[in-house]
Amino acid sequence: xxxxxxxxxxxxxxxxxxxxxxxxxxxxxxxxxxxxxxxxxxxxxxxxxxxxxxxxxxxxxxxxxxxxxxxxxxxxxxxxxxxxxxxxxxxxxxxxxxxxxxxxxxxxxxxxxxxxxxxxxxxxxxxxxxxxx
Length: 133
Ligand SMILES: [Zn+2]
Description:
By secondary structure, this protein is mostly helical. The chain has one domain (3-111). It is 60% helix and 0% strand. The chain contains six helices and no strands. It has helices spanning 3-23, 30-40, 52-56, 58-68, 77-88, 92-111. Helix 1 packs antiparallel against helix 2, helix 2 (30-40) packs parallel to helix 6 and helix 5 packs antiparallel against helix 6 (92-111). The longest helix is centred in the first third of the chain and has 21 residues, at 3-23. Zinc ion (ZN) is lined by residues 44-45, 71, 75, 105, 109. Zinc ion is lined by residues 44-45, 71, 75, 105, 109. The chain crosses the membrane at residues 30-47, 94-122. Keywords: Membrane, Transmembrane, Transmembrane helix.
């Protein structure tokens, strides 16, 4: 999937989670969920130097690519939980938004046809995907 698809899905996920939290009286802030969800939905691809974020944060992107490869650590549940926990220190809604944005990215990458899948359980290197080549 590309940048536009990921951030669109992230925004949709954020709106859905905000609606669900209001519906079930959990009281998450819709803005503090949706905006981080939208932004975090692009974050996992920072591990690829030619991605939208990779071109803007070239040094970090190349370092991550050399250290882990593409669709490994930043596309794992470990990264998802780490970033969610980290941002939850700012605000619960932000942490949930970041977690859901990264998770939406991972799920979309798993649905990408003819890909190599994602290392969802990194550091276990097995890759998961629906239509893997
Ligand atoms: Zn990706």
